[in-house]
Amino acid sequence: MGVRLLFGAIGLAVALGAALGLNALFDALNTRALLAGTQVLLFDTDDEVVERLQEAGAQFGDPQFSLAWNNRNDLDLHVIDPAGNHIWYRQRTSPTGGELDVDANADRLRTTERPVENIYWPPDNAPEGVYKVYVHHYANHGAPDPTPYTLRITIGGRTREFQGSLRHGEKSQEIAVDPNAVDDWYPLPAERMGWAFVVMGAWGAVLGLVLALGLRLPQAFFRRHEAYDPRELNVGRIVVGALGGALLGGLAGALGQALFGWFYGLGEDFARLVGLAMLGGLLGYGLAHCVPNLPVNPARWAGAIGGALGLWAYGWALQYYSDATGRWLVAALLGLAIGLMITLIFWAMQYALVRSGGTIRKERLSKAYRLKAGGS
Q: 3-state secondary structure string, 308-349?
């Protein structure tokens, strides 16, 4: 039992470390903005700006300039079109077709904690040239300053967000936008669904890599154990096992994402359950072929159960913390569940050896158990 708990703890620790490192990397790469509006297995990608625009009855166009912040203060969005027309709360339309159709928190008696403002041009009806946009903190309605904001610009099928914060009376730096120079901006959500597979595949690959190493290398401390095989700890097998874990982990992440997308219409929770169970089951199955003394069927089922439990852990994290917390909880559950299965062969070999009175050779015992367990 002590060995079983040891490998379970190792699996939990290395998976948790990998998830924390990946969260830091995702933050550095601004992955949330890349995935916003798409459906991703382990990311909360609800588009807050779009939700607010829809609630306010805003129109969508090209180009479109949207401003969101999170208190009752009054921020104002200003856009100057290529013809020099200035659209703002005192001049809501322009001769070129632009319009400010949503202006939040202008009335002190009718404010909201989820404000949004929106200026747009109907598609294919906007003037060509450079647009200039800035934000002005017009009035403080009692909320503390500075007030953070998000400015989203959508133009030519591309989108980009700019963050800042302002105190009462301050104006942001003016941003000049050339519709012909936005190729490096993010594509719209419908055009970047492939990134969901890339991100989840990368998440699964890193998890598979660290578990393949983390569950193999500590076996070097069991040299006197019947299950110990020194050949499994040479450099070549360690490298091949690690690469196999990464490859099969990446496949598990991508397939889990695919199932999540396919079943999403039946309910988000059900789709996430199916996706996480597949991710965990395939990860366990793959690791059983990359880590010595890890039986196939127990690892596969342990991974699937760990993934299913991950649904509850991820939901709890979303409610009280964040999707980042949910990702490391799911990783920890998978690492713990699969790691606990390492000791099944250790325990079975000890039990069989005692029952045989020490007359069974190690080679025969290993082979017999692997056949019984369904492994190779």
A: HHHHHHHHHHHHHCCHHHHHHHHHHHHHHHHHHCCHHHHHHH
Which amino acid appears at position 205 of this protein? A
For the chain, strand residue ranges (E) read: 64-69, 74-80, 86-87, 99-102, 116-120, 131-139, 147-155, 158-166, 175-177, 186-187
- Residue 103: CA count within 13 A, CB half-sphere: 18
Domains, the chain: 2-43+198-373 (no CATH), 48-188 (2.60.60)
**CA 228, 291, 326 angle in degrees (round to 5)?**
130
Alpha-carbon torsion 347, 353, 354, 356, what sign? positive
Question: Residue 89, exposed/middle/buried by CB under 10 A (0-12, 13-18, 19+)?
Answer: middle
Per residue of the chain (376 residues), give pLDDT as tens. 567 788 999 999 999 999 999 999 999 988 877 787 788 999 988 778 888 999 999 999 999 999 999 999 999 999 999 999 999 999 999 999 999 999 999 998 899 999 999 999 998 889 999 999 999 999 999 999 999 999 999 998 888 999 999 999 999 999 999 999 999 888 776 666 788 999 999 999 999 999 999 999 998 887 776 667 788 889 999 999 999 999 999 999 999 999 999 999 999 999 999 999 999 999 999 999 999 889 899 999 999 999 999 999 999 999 999 999 999 999 999 999 999 998 645 555 555 555 555 554 444 444 444 444 444 4
DSSP letter (8 states) at residue 351: H
The answer to whether the beta carbons of residues 241 and 191 sit under 8 Å apart is no
Which residues, in sequence order, are CB contacts of 187 under 8 Å at separation 6+?
Answer: 157, 158, 159
Query: Which structure tokens are listed for 36?
Result: 């916003």
What DSSP element (H or E) covers 237? helix 235-262
Whether residue 19 contacts residue 214, with contact meaning beta carbons closer than 8 Å, is answered with no
Assigned token pair, 65: 């300039």
Q: Which of 36, 268, 55, 300 is nearest to 152 (CA)?
A: 36
